[in-house]
Design brief:
Length: about 110
DNA sequence: GAAATGACAGAGT
DNA sequence: GACTCTGCCATTT
């Protein structure tokens, strides 16, 4: 099994973790926003890489979703249940991106 | 040091 | 409105 997990050995990784931690309860954010908070608005991919590693256990990574309002490709089914995504009713499973807009962390100040 | 991988984003068709 | 392709970045091997 080859599972290259990233570790928080860099400041950037730490920054991403801090950004996720900044997410208020009942709200979700996108990789792009996290990347931007980390200082690299184009590093959404890198953000996903860091999460994959799980360098910060306990961190609400499940609150971070794709900009499209979808979950991305991590296949978090049980996770969503535990996630506070029900802030607006339900983000995934039925209505999706629309409600997502309601719980989206208003951090994107483009 | 270089190549491969990956939980995305945005623009174009 | 939906699908496809490319670009950007960081980490790991």
């Amino acid at each position: 099994m080859k599972r290259p997990r990233a570790s928080a050995s860099s400041a950037f990784t730490r920054r991403v973790i801090a950004a996720v931690r900044r997410i208020p309860p009942g709200r979700v954010t996108t990789y792009g926003d996290i990347a931007r908070l980390a200082g690299k608005p184009r590093a959404a991919r890198a953000v996903g890489n860091i999460m994959r590693g799980g360098g910060a256990p306990g961190l609400p990574y499940h609150r971070v979703i794709a900009a499209a309002g979808r979950l991305g490709g991590y296949g978090g089914n049980e996770m969503l249940r535990a996630a506070p995504l029900r802030a607006g009713g339900r983000v995934v499973g039925g209505g999706g991106a629309r409600q997502f807009s309601a719980v989206r962390w208003p951090s994107r100040t483009r």
